[in-house]
Amino acid sequence: MNERTLCALAGVFSLAGTAVLSAAPAKTISVGQFPKEAQLVERVLVPVPSEVFAVLDKLGKPNWPDVLRAQKGLATPAGGKEQISLMLGAVIAEGFIAVEAENAEEVKNIGNSVRSLAKAIGVEKAVSRRANSIVEYAEKRKWAEVRKELDLALTDVRQAMMELNSESLAQLVSLGGWLRGTEALASVVNKAYSKDGAELLHQPVLIEHFHVQLQALSEKARKEAVIAKIQNGLTLIRPLMGTDDGPGISEKEAREIGKICAELVAAVSGKTSK
């Protein structure tokens, strides 16, 4: 049943298209519920970010300010293009959380950080207008518009990287966002554990997808410490996500998934996880 909650929040922070806010999302997440803007990326369904957050809110209104990790300033590029691409994905993922937390200052920081990181990998022009709009709408507290601009920033980054023949970097942006998104989801699940909530962490298809993408990097890139750490982390996460016909993800497994993702996000950011 590869498509059952196919990568639920994982897809939230993957590269997606135009945002659509659901008027009445269902109580569970399934592939059939996502609108036509959801995309297939190499046979992996990518839900629209805002749609998934709308569903998650219906599942219990998570305490997003608790999940948010405030930057307190601009994100500083670290490492080579691979690591910066991962950072860009993680920062955009943080933007979605900041919107849910309705933290205008943090959203503005993130908008400016997106521009800074994009500049470091040569795609500033593609996201400059989006970054400006993110800051502008955050000041006006127009959260639906901020969500849309974050969605479109991801799309613009992917297109710009494709034009530069940098598909591998585009995949790393997606991976960086997935790591922070899955960490955030695990945090929400673990604050009020339930089997249904933990099911959203069942994302084996994306784990395998990202493994393939990392293996396709150049030998030099694969030897980078952060890339090697992520490969190892994905290997550790995969068995924790269970099987389609298994008993589901336990509370202990959900905590461990969140812990590993937190360590990987910290490595991407050049920091040590708490």
Explain how this protein is built:
The protein is mainly α and 274 residues long. The chain has one domain (8-268). 62% of the residues lie in helices and 2% in strands. The chain has helices at residues 8-12, 49-58, 64-67, 81-100, 104-120, 124-139, 143-163, 167-191, 195-199, 204-215, 219-222, 225-237, 251-268, and strands at 39-41, 44-46. A two-stranded antiparallel sheet has the order 1-2. The longest helix has 25 residues, at 167-191. The radius of gyration is 17 Å and the shape is globular.
Helix and strand topology:
Blueprint: H1 8-12, E1 39-41, E2 44-46, H2 49-58, H3 64-67, H4 81-100, H5 104-120, H6 124-139, H7 143-163, H8 167-191, H9 195-199, H10 204-215, H11 219-222, H12 225-237, H13 251-268
Antiparallel strand pairs: 1-2
Helix pairs in contact: 4-5, 4-7, 4-8, 5-6, 6-7, 7-8, 8-13, 10-12, 12-13
Protein traits:
2 strands; 2% strand; disordered N terminus; 274 residues; globular; 13 helices; two-stranded antiparallel ribbon; mainly alpha
